[in-house]
Amino acid sequence: MRDFTDDLKPASPHGTTILTNERSQSDVPEDELAEHLLSRNDFLGRQKRILRVLEKDPLFEKVKQFNLSRPERYQLGLARAKKIRRYEDQYRWDDEDRSMAQYLCDDVTPYMVHYAMFVTTIREQGSEEQRAYWMPKVESMEVIGCYAQTELGHGSNVRGLECQARWDPKTKEFALHSPTLTASKWWNGTMGRTANHAIVMAQLLLPKNEGSDEYTNKGVHPFIVQIRDMKTHQPMPGIAVGDIGPKYGYAPMDNGYMLFDNHRIPYSAMLSRYSMVDQNNGTYFQPENPAVVYGSLTYVRAQIIMHARLIIARAVTIAVRYTSVRRQFSDRDSKDPKAPELAVLDYPTVQIRILPLLATAFALHYCGESMHRLYETTRAEIDKGDFRRLAVLHAQSSGLKSLCTELAANSIETCRRAMGGHGFGGPSGFIQLNNDYLSKPTVEGDNWMITQQTASYLIKRMQAAAAGKGQPQDDIEKHCRQYLSEKSNYRPDQLRIFDNDEDLVESFRRRSRDMTYRAHVERNERKRSWNSMQIQLRKVSHSESQSILVSNFYDAVNGSSVSSTLKTHLRTLFRLFAFYTMDNEARDFSKANAVSEEDLDALPSKIQELMAQIRPHAVKLVDSWKIPDFLLDSALGRYDGKVYEDLFNRAHRLNPLNEITFNPNYKSEELIMGGGDDIKKILAKL
After folding, report:
1. C-alpha of 394 from chain center
2. Which alpha helices (DSSP H) does 326-439 contain, by range?
3. Which of 556-570, 582-596, 668-682 has the lowest mean pLDDT?
4. Cis bond upstream, residue 13 (ω within 30)
5. How far apart are CA 400 and CA 409, in angstroms?
6. Is the distance from CB of 198 to CB of 165 less than 8 angstroms?
7. How many Å apart are CA 241 and CA 251, to the nearest integer?
8. Which position among 162, 173, 444, 506 bears the catalytic label?
């Protein structure tokens, strides 16, 4: 129904005019940059094609979904998952198309773990016969699976898992058993209400000898297990499984619990590409490299790193557009009493929170691309029996997963705060983004814990370099040897970080090697306990990961065949990211003799100069990520700048709470006018 508010307009200047002017003042070649960033697998063309389908479907409208209950959110998530799968059949989408639809839907679906980990684990760890049997069922969605590793009592410590798979040589079966309450599988997505099968990670127990009642633990192995009846979808006998309840985010995801009571599974349930039990004599054949058992986790960590760049780009897109439109206060030094209010993004105190994050999105992009190539190369080598790169992949993916998800999670909150009061509102586009992404610093390896894996690898390579025997095992050991041979001659003024980008990259590498060397001395020479070094180890890991980010950014900018105009902008973003990171870690660079005190003192002013250079181009730089309004779902981050019109429309016309007339009289049990005793209805739901 129309009312007088329909004719009101925001005060000038209008948001659309502001963003038009912002775009016209910049020479950033937006389409060239978008193609440079997102050309792999035809990301842009795919996004445009899939978007046309989803935008027309009312099932994927998002404006009112915050008002749904948790059970309703699960039902909506399942309905969306089914619809995307039907679209996959209808339009003959491939895996990349489906992933794009899930990305644009922006609501984790109950099928997610099936696609992300269940399929990958069977493909990578199943034998040829197992893949031939299971993959057709999996791809047709006859079998819907989850990945059951984390338990109520153990998460990051995979070796500590309590679930048992006990081999019975008489029946040629495994008995899956949860001996304690803490052995319950817990947090496993898709398991609570959706999956009918699971990859169960369990301790493999084999009889010590024929007829023995004593067992030998061979460590954690994957088993494929039917957990629900294929017709009734009820739990199989000897299995207790369900949803764990509401969480901080991921409302549509049925994270589950599951316990086994000596549940029998066939011999063929053990995925046996790399290890197996001889069903005739019980002999165990172990994997050549035990780390391959966790290959699915490494794959997911690589995917998480790639995803982090899009999360930061999305948060920064909203923040840059809104703070360009938003006006607050006139220039304090202006003598004109009628001086216009400044754009919020013109204030350095806002720029320092947003623009380094803009540069960070690019840094994570180039690192993600490098990580993707490393994973694909390593996977191909493993398939040929070559495991040499696996340790490097594991170490880098652990450290980068920790750092990149930390940067991405923090970026959402930093951008939200930089936008003031409106950033706190539902139409900001940040609530679900923040709540859902906050799981990433914890899942697939707690961010503080997994840095120990990276640091351990680095310390071993430094120890090998110090021993100096034979040829270096890899590039890291080679750099460690170079560091050891040159460190006594290091002078901080050797590297001219403001004049030479190669020196800037080298300063990060030098600082990382110095921190690794200090940890090596503490651990291997002074014999400090591992636990007492954990805080130091995290810094070792982060310093190496930051060095990788800077190095990959530099290589990408200098190795790409883009226009000179675009290269200039990318180089400015590279330097902002590197200088901003260095400024936050200045003490470590000083201790490593990697940067002079004079240059460290100059960093804040250099950073402000770079932000001033980026500011006129900020809107077009975020536009280049081509994030559609459909995905942003943000009144503040709209491409057309109609911030205030959308905020008011969502509150005045689309808010279901405003469709109800309430009775505020405390003497009455009635809550809704004409609704009777509404308190009983509320109590029934508690």
Report:
1. 16
2. 348-383, 390-418, 431-437
3. 668-682
4. yes
5. 14
6. no
7. 18
8. 444
For 211, the token pair is: 């007829």
Q: Would the CA dihedral through 131, 136, 142, 146 be positive or negative?
A: positive
Would you call 220 helix, strand, or coil by DSSP? strand
Q: Reply yes or no on whether the pLDDT at 282 is more than 90.
A: no
CA distance 522 to 112: 43
With left for phi above 0 and alpha for psi between -120 and 50, is residue 93 left, alpha or beta?
A: beta
The CA distance from 523 to 459, in Å, is 8
**Tokens for 32?**
């060239």
Task: Give the separation between CA 586 and CA 457, rounded to whole angstroms.
Answer: 25
pTM score, whole prediction: 0.93
What is the tens place of the pLDDT at every residue in 198-227? 999 999 999 988 777 899 999 999 999 999
Please state, in angstroms and rounded to a whole number, the distance separating the CA atoms of residues 431 and 63.
Answer: 12
Q: Is 214 a catalytic residue?
A: no
Would you say 505 and 571 are in contact if contact means Cβ atoms under 8 Å apart?
no
- DSSP class of residue 339 equals P
d(CA 362, CA 360): 5
Three-class secondary structure of residue 203 per DSSP: strand
What is residue 297's predicted lDDT score, i.e. its pLDDT?
61
Pairing of strands 256-260, 239-243: antiparallel
**Per-residue pLDDT reduced to its tens digit, 354-376:** 999 999 999 999 999 988 888 88
The pLDDT confidence band at residue 392, using thresholds 50, 70 and 90, is confident
Q: Report the pLDDT value the prediction gives residue 295, as an integer from 0 to 100.
A: 56
Q: Which two tokens stand for residue 163?
A: 């679930």
Q: Which residues contact 549 (CB under 8 A, 6 or more apart)?
A: 363, 364, 366, 367, 400, 403, 577, 581
Tokens of 133: 């049997």
Long-range contacts (CB closer than 8 Å, 24 or more residues apart) made by 560-567: 560/36, 562/32, 562/33, 562/36, 563/29, 563/32, 565/27, 565/28, 565/29, 566/28, 566/29, 566/32, 566/33, 566/36
